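To: structure desk
From: M.T.
Subject: fold request, one chain
Message: Could you run this one when you get a chance? Sequence is below, nothing fancy, just the single chain.
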Amino acid sequence: MPFSLNKRRGTISGIIFVATVASGATYISQLSFVSALGLSPLVIGIVIGIFYANTLHNHFPPSWESGIIFSAKKILRFAIVVYGFRITFQQIAEVGLHGFLVSLIMLSSTMLIGIWLGTKVFKMDRDTSILTASGASVCGAAAVLATEPVLKADEYKTAVAVSMVVLFGTISMFLYPVLYTTIIEPSSDFLHMDPQTFGIYVGGTIHEVAQVVAVPASIPNTPPEMANSAVIVKMTRVLLIAPMLIILGVVLSLIQNTHSKNGKKIHIVIPWFAVYFVIVAGINSLILYYLNTSLQPYASSIKSTIDNINTIDTFLLTMAMTALGMGTQFSKFKNVGMAPLYTAIAMFVWLVAGGFVIIKVIGALVA
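Reply: Done. Structure tokens follow.
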């Protein structure tokens, strides 16, 4: 146990160490040139963590390891639950059937395509395939973090998945504004999208929330409906991570039972933190609903409190990502090869091209 009498001091010291490094990552993410790249403190945290794991790891007390593991496991689950305060069910209703269907189809199709390509075509291991697919299909690094406890995957596999998210999410952030200004907006045929539809395209196909926010901001004279629809569709994808993780846990348990050689049944694993995440999102939705009625006198203080909760939650997620990086050593990467890159490229092509077609088709059907 991490807080047993013989480990308590080391665990607390390890948590403080992770928090200190996460504070540094948060500071770096706020620098203007780093912020312009859309790099979240989560990504910077794992980079610093990986640097520590491969250079300074042996110079720190081994007793701190329990605190690092605690940050990567327990704090991670708690932070994912609290992430629900960023989402409301009203947001889903706001983008309507078009935005919801885009979110659902892009998430499920990208997840299935990524897992199939990773395991069957490029012969990658199951965990890395699922982690890489979850990052591309839902919400980048945060989705990889949320999926890791369901799989109980090694830290280096999480790092591989996050690196793919960072690479292709960053490419998307620079590619989409160019596509819009040079091809999509000037066209008068199938390639044309109005600002709101393009916002749905951005929110439905780009990896990280920060990158989704950055794309409309990079386009001159951006109409507000583009940025609004992009963020709302993106947050709808984030909310769908809960049913995705529950389904994933059930499917993995059933597969293990099917292939069990000793006849011993494995209980179906439900990631309860994903259920709690939805409950928190529901609470946040109720708060928003009552802000216009009985809670209106307290609106300012409630909104400020939720903003503070989200700030703390971002820091806790940064701690978890930093701790995962601290367990990632390059020596474990030697057998990974190019399969994660090939899988990520294929999913990126699907998101950009396949996502465009799906949004057009759904738009025509629900019009």
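Reply (cont.): DSSP finds 15 helices and no strands in the chain. Let me know if you need anything else for the meeting.
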